[in-house]
Structures are given as structure tokens and as C-alpha cells.
Design a protein that fits this description.
260 residues; 7-stranded mixed beta sheet; alpha+beta; 4-stranded antiparallel beta sheet
């Protein structure tokens, strides 16, 4: 009986072994694919030593100041020299809480210097100032085009105490900007990138500040952490980073001239 039982056991094992072997060769189940959020780096290259965000904290004030708190009129830029690939960029300025008791005026101007002894005003306009601390967006109209290779300066001034017999007070900032043309390789990369946040990363990687900021500003509502990350990387104050965008300003009394 023992011999017969061993025979039956051998028969059963012989029948199971092929099945066991075949199971061992089956591939492991494929896990469900997970679409992870796009991982990008929005840390802008550091500004040159001694350079940084441009504000009236550096002394851009005639008189006392039009601001009512410690936060200053500030351009959202990493340094006083920036670049763009846009012919008609938008400029961003933080406006602090202002003293509105004796009148206010906001003015934007774009100029360039064709030679050492001459400045040419390309575009000049009054800008409606917000009643609360906000970031004002100032788009350059399509009728005003930045020419490649020319270094421009844009300025923004807030004038207050307009009725003061001793003279008004003015806070002002100035930033240089130059338009560069896209290389064919970079142009192809941007055209082939469907994700708008990835385009922001490409602009940041290439040190093209104005287009980095313009592109991310359009996504700010849905990409608030990326907005904070970018502006933190250029050492913009936290209160400015969190400030809302002002309603589209009323631009008036515009003056345009050719840069040729």
C-alpha cells in the first residue's frame, strides 16, 4: 500500500509541475498607470551680484513718499536689466497703499537712447492707479513694437500731493529691457510644447524674464504655488507676491513715436 501511495503521489506531482512552471513564467500584473503632475523648476537664475528687484526702496523718490506703509513701489523684475522675446510685452508694477488726500497720477514711459546725448520717448501714457495695494499690468499696445537688439528703458512714476504749494512728491522706478529673437531650436521647442506651464519653465531656463512672468501670470489662479515659487526665487517681498492683480487700468493720453 505504501508503494502504491507513493506512485499516486508521483503521478499527481508530475501533473502539477508543468502548471506550476507555467505560472512562474507569467509576467507580473501591470500596475495602473498614474499621471503624475508635471514636475517643473521655476527658480529663475540669480541676479548679478549687487543687483535685485527694482523699487523705490533704493531711493527712487522726490520728496517724502506717496506710499503709506513700508512696502515700496516695486517692479516685478529680478534685476534692473531684463530680456524678452515679445514685440509687445506686458509690464508688472506693484502699487502700495497710497496717500490719496491731495491727488494722484500714475505715468508709464518707454524710452531708448540712440546715442549718449539723446533719449527718445517711444511711448508715454497715464495709468489709473488702484485704490488698494495691487499689481498693475501695463501692456504695450500693438502699435508700439520693441525692435530686436535695442536696449530700452521703461519707467513708472506715481506723483502725489499735486495741489501742494511746495511742489508734488514723486516715486519712480526704471528698468532696462531688450528684445532678443528666438533661436530656431528654442522656437521649435516652444511650438512643440503643449503644456503652458512647461513653456513657463523653458522661458525661465533660458533667462527670458518678461515672457516667464507674462506666461505664468495667465496661469496664476490655477498655479498659485508656482507663482510664489518664481517670485520667491528673485527675492520679491511676500506681501507683494500675495497682492492681487488690479483691474485692467485705464490708459489715457497716450503718446507714441517710432523707434527708428
Amino acid at each position: 500500500m505504501v508503494i502504491k501511495s507513493v506512485g499516486y503521489l508521483s503521478l499527481i506531482l508530475g501533473m502539477m509541475l508543468p502548471v506550476t512552471a507555467s505560472l512562474a513564467t507569467l509576467p507580473s500584473p501591470v500596475k495602473n498607470r498614474v499621471n503624475f503632475p508635471l514636475q517643473i523648476s521655476l527658480e529663475f537664475p540669480p541676479a548679478p551680484k549687487g543687483d535685485g528687484p527694482v523699487s523705490t526702496a533704493g531711493g527712487g523718490t522726490r520728496g517724502n513718499s506717496c506710499g503709506l506703509d513700508n512696502t515700496k513701489l516695486t517692479a516685478l523684475v529680478p534685476s534692473k536689466n531684463t530680456s524678452t522675446v515679445s514685440a509687445n510685452p506686458t509690464f508688472f508694477v506693484y502699487i502700495p497703499k497710497l496717500n490719496q488726500s491731495q491727488g494722484l497720477k500714475g505715468e508709464f514711459e518707454l524710452i531708448y537712447n540712440p546715442n549718449k546725448n539723446k533719449y527718445v520717448s517711444v511711448y508715454k501714457t497715464n495709468v489709473q492707479l488702484p485704490s488698494e495695494p495691487s499689481i498693475v499690468k501695463i501692456p504695450l499696445p500693438e502699435t508700439v513694437t520693441l525692435e530686436p537688439g535695442i536696449k530700452y528703458q521703461w519707467t513708472f512714476a506715481v506723483t502725489c500731493d499735486l495741489s501742494n504749494p511746495l511742489g508734488p512728491t514723486e516715486d519712480f522706478i526704471g528698468v532696462y529691457i531688450q528684445r532678443n529673437e528666438l533661436t530656431p531650436t528654442l522656437k521649435d521647442e516652444l511650438e512643440q510644447t503643449q503644456n503652458p506651464l512647461k513653456k513657463v519653465e523653458i522661458y525661465a531656463r533660458e533667462n527670458i524674464w518678461q515672457d516667464t512672468l507674462m506666461s505664468l501670470a495667465q496661469l496664476r489662479e490655477s498655479q498659485q504655488e508656482e507663482w510664489k515659487s518664481l517670485l520667491n526665487s528673485i527675492k520679491i517681498e511676500e506681501s507683494i507676491i500675495e497682492a492681487p492683480f488690479a483691474p485692467e487700468p485705464t490708459v489715457s493720453n497716450s503718446e507714441e513715436q517710432s523707434a527708428q
